[in-house]
Write a structure and sequence with these properties.
The protein is an alpha/beta fold. It has two domains: about 180 residues, Isopropylmalate Dehydrogenase; about 130 residues, Isopropylmalate Dehydrogenase, CATH 3.40.718.10. It has twelve helices and eleven strands. The chain has an eleven-stranded mixed sheet, with helices on both faces. The longest helix is centred in the last third of the chain and has 22 residues.
């Protein structure tokens, strides 16, 4: 047991499925010693509601601000949600936890509670003083990273600059090496436009932005391929031998990933000084309290966090 990494799991939005999918961690046989962070009474009450037990869980207690009920959002608990994230982060920073895994939160209710919050990824970057992070989802043999994340489609082209794209690719390459133990990652890069711009007939972003960055990085020894048409990038033949794929915008890459691995996909934040993974689904308020929520993505997130910790340990030894 002493060799297993200690992984903190934040229980997320109290009115959502987070508390109850955390209950499934008790006997999941995962390669980690798990500490669930959240309100102890909330977790025990939810266990009773769905006919499970919380007796085997190691819980770091963080108190709710007001009582919570399944499926009923309450903005007064917005500070509690942030407290839970902060507790997991602090434990990682002071060495008590080797990694943190996050259950889903409801961004809208956090904002309704008067707190500026656009997502775990951005929040953790700010709290750790990390100038840039990269969102990557993994599952079904894919590792799909994003050049842009939660932007309106009309704003995407302007956000893809040579500087930003190069920074994203450097972070992706570095974390594939340092956190996943891949000696020389091969990264496939999608074009922005249909047919990767078709030599400028469908847009010039490939010519003016993406191609120059890829050439520069290849000249420096990085194995990056593209820009590739996104509609064929995710075919088996093209994917063969690749370690990750970079999409230019959210739905370009994640529609494919979630089709392939919706039940066990994992969100990984690259570039952080800590290890953070997450489920790839939302709070599912309609399922909260029913006992029907699928914990598969949470299991996969804990497993991947443990694998990343192991890869980092091996890298230090070697």
């Amino acid at each position: 047991m002493s060799t297993l990494p200690v992984v903190a799991v934040s229980s997320g939005e109290p009115a959502g499925i987070g508390p109850e999918i955390c209950l499934a961690l008790d006997d999941a046989g995962l390669p980690a010693r798990i500490v669930v962070i959240g309100d102890r009474d909330l977790i025990e009450t939810r266990a009773q509601l769905i006919g499970k037990s919380a007796s085997g869980l190691d819980i770091q207690h963080v108190p709710l601000r007001v009582p919570s009920h399944p499926g009923r959002l309450d903005a007064r608990n917005a500070p509690y949600v942030i407290d839970v994230i902060d507790a997991a982060l602090q434990g990682c920073r002071d060495g008590r936890y080797a990694a943190m895994v996050t259950a889903p939160v409801q961004k809208s209710v956090i904002n309704d509670g008067g707190l500026a919050f656009t997502g775990h990824t951005e929040y953790l970057a700010e709290k750790t003083g990390t100038p840039k992070v990269v969102m990557m989802l993994a599952g079904a043999g894919l590792r799909v990273a994003l050049a842009t994340t939660h932007l309106a489609l009309k704003d995407v082209p302007a956000a893809i600059t040579q500087e930003e794209l190069e920074s994203t690719l450097r972070i992706l390459d570095a974390d594939l090496r340092n956190k996943f133990g891949i000696a020389r990652p091969r990264i496939l890069v999608a074009g922005l436009n249909p047919h990767a711009g078709e030599d400028g007939h469908m847009g010039r972003e490939e010519i003016d932005v993406i191609t120059p960055v890829l050439k520069r990085l290849r000249d420096q020894g990085m194995d990056v391929v593209g820009p590739l048409p996104a509609d064929t990038l995710f075919t088996r033949k093209v994917l063969s031998g690749s370690d990750a794929q970079l999409a230019m915008y959210h739905d370009q890459g994640l529609a494919v990933l979630k089709y392939a691995a919706f039940e066990d996909g994992v969100n990984v934040t690259l570039g952080l000084p800590i290890v953070r993974t997450s489920v790839d689904h939302g709070t599912a308020l309609d399922l909260a309290g029913t006992g029907r929520a699928d914990p598969g993505s949470l299991f996969a997130a804990v497993k991947m966090a443990a694998e990343i910790v192991a890869a980092k340990r091996n890298a230090k030894v070697n």
